[in-house]
């Protein structure tokens, strides 16, 4: 049984780190992630650098990565509008990702538009991207809870997912943006959405803000989901609670999946290299437990 | 649906911290844990202080706790032999816990006896404790993997569990001592043991060394298990990989269980007080994600 991992550390992870990592180190990180066997990597974002200074070097990073991208590896970036799409095209990207929220207030805070106003903007980007022969992925945020509204009706997520798929998005990643989900809720929400859209069109994007990330992955696996987003080292944090944890860690996810008999194509030892590398660049201890355990074990082995 | 939590932070957590916490702070911690609604607390250990200097103050701690123990709260301590039992009795304890391993090499390293040689020692302790009217709990270590032997046949765990139950132990806690288990393995092993011993006699004791702790709890819940051990703040570490994570965090466990509709009797806000307290005593950031998220949120609220 195969599971696809979409590595979002260079984008979702680094955009929530307070330190700004130099472009060269970002390119080095993506190189190590490819060496570890990750075949889908979201490498940066074309959101206005005024909002996300951490990824202001998107062009430099992507122009450094594309020539060294291994065959079969899909590099993508977040694109908010047609201007962003043009920048992505100039970098030679063959895949982009669109994003919006399932809750009105989060969508407005994040995109400065209502959900209804966002649809035509994204539809235009999707149309042009598809005309350029690009793959287009979609993110829906706040599926499992909104920092402003609390609970989010599953029908909101259903409606936004449907709209994205109708635009030609090949896969919608359902996000627990603030990391509040528990396995029961994951079962309930995915059961509804899988029925409408099939497992092939959906991915799980869990944050580990309250430690439930991997338990939520298992619940989604049980609903048939086979694609998950994660960040190397558990990079990043929760933008609504600075100091709290971010995406689930790629190392922890891979460890668990392999233990459960799933194939990911990822080499866990090489993944540890990538985690150790970006941890050193950031100069702070990352939250990945497998990274900690593997580095601790290496230290022990060196002393024996 | 009710789930029982056995708080093992003051024992399993603190015995794996490098810092030695003063007895007064340990008593303060147990007080806060009781205030948060925890009804089963393993407060210390009567293992030789030469091996575990962190808990050398067992008498002082327990004599400080017992007079303030709330009605209905069960305080226990680890007891390796009849000498330990006598010390426990003098402290007024009404419950003790015995321990051994499912793997021969870990049992020998930890207890300095073979598994077969350990049985009569523990049987004597259990017999005397029961005669004193005490409750006796049992731990089986390395059920999901041994640091020396790797995989451990489920039949080893079955045999040791059976022996403990025959001694009069009321519940056996099955330990993932080195934190290697994944949900698939938890399903497989608990399915076998539940069949032989029933869910009422078994508990899950997971370490979060590789981030799979809560996912393993969900797997055990699905096998019918309703009692879990955890440590406030995710205290402690893995003795075989210093720097790696320890027990699953009580805060994270409670957050997830409540989200899944289980009752624990624990107040998560008060639990945060207990986590913040011991974190400050230790002077290091603990690994509990819910503790981090709650403290980050409080900081934000204070600034608004």
From TrEMBL, chains A, B:
Domain Pyruvate carboxyltransferase: 3-272
InterPro entries, per database record: Aldolase_TIM, HMGL, PYR_CT
Keyword Transport: no
Gene Ontology MF terms in the entry: hydroxymethylglutaryl-CoA lyase activity; metal ion binding
Domain of life: Bacteria
Record key words, sorted: Lyase, Metal-binding
One Gene Ontology biological process: L-leucine catabolic process
Record-linked PROSITE patterns: PYR_CT (PS50991)
Family: Belongs to the HMG-CoA lyase family.
Name of the featured protein: Hydroxymethylglutaryl-CoA lyase
Organism the protein comes from: Brevibacillus gelatini
Top-level taxonomy: Bacteria, Bacillati, Bacillota, Bacilli, Bacillales
């Amino acid at each position: 049984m195969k599971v696809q991992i979409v590595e979002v550390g260079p984008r979702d992870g680094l955009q929530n780190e307070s330190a700004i990592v130099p472009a060269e180190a970002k390119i080095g990180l993506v190189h190590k992630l490819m060496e570890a066997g990750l075949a889908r990597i979201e490498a940066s974002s074309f959101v206005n650098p005024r909002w996300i200074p951490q990824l202001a070097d998107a062009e430099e990073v992507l122009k450094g990565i594309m020539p060294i991208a291994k065959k079969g590896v899909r590099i993508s970036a977040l694109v908010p509008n047609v201007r962003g799409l043009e920048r992505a095209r100039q970098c030679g990207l063959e895949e982009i990702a669109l994003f919006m929220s399932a809750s009105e207030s989060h969508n407005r805070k994040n995109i400065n538009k209502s959900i209804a106003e966002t649809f035509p903007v994204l539809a235009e980007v999707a149309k042009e991207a598809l005309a350029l022969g690009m793959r287009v992925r979609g993110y829906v945020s706040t599926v499992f809870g909104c920092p402003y509204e609390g609970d989010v009706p599953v029908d909101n997520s259903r409606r936004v997912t449907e709209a994205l798929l109708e635009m030609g998005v090949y896969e919608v990643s359902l996000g627990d943006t603030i990391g509040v989900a528990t396995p029961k809720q994951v079962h309930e929400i995915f059961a509804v959405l899988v029925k409408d859209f099939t497992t092939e069109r959906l991915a799980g994007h869990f944050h580990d803000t309250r430690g439930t990330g991997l338990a939520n992955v298992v619940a989604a696996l049980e609903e048939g989901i086979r694609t998950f987003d994660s960040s190397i080292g558990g990079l990043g944090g929760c933008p609504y609670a600075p100091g709290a944890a971010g995406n689930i860690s790629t190392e922890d996810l891979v460890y668990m999946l392999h233990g459960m008999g799933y194939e990911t194509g990822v080499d866990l030892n090489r993944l540890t290299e990538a985690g150790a590398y970006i941890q050193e660049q950031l100069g702070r201890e990352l939250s990945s437990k497998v990274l900690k355990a593997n580095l601790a074990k290496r230290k022990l082995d060196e002393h024996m």
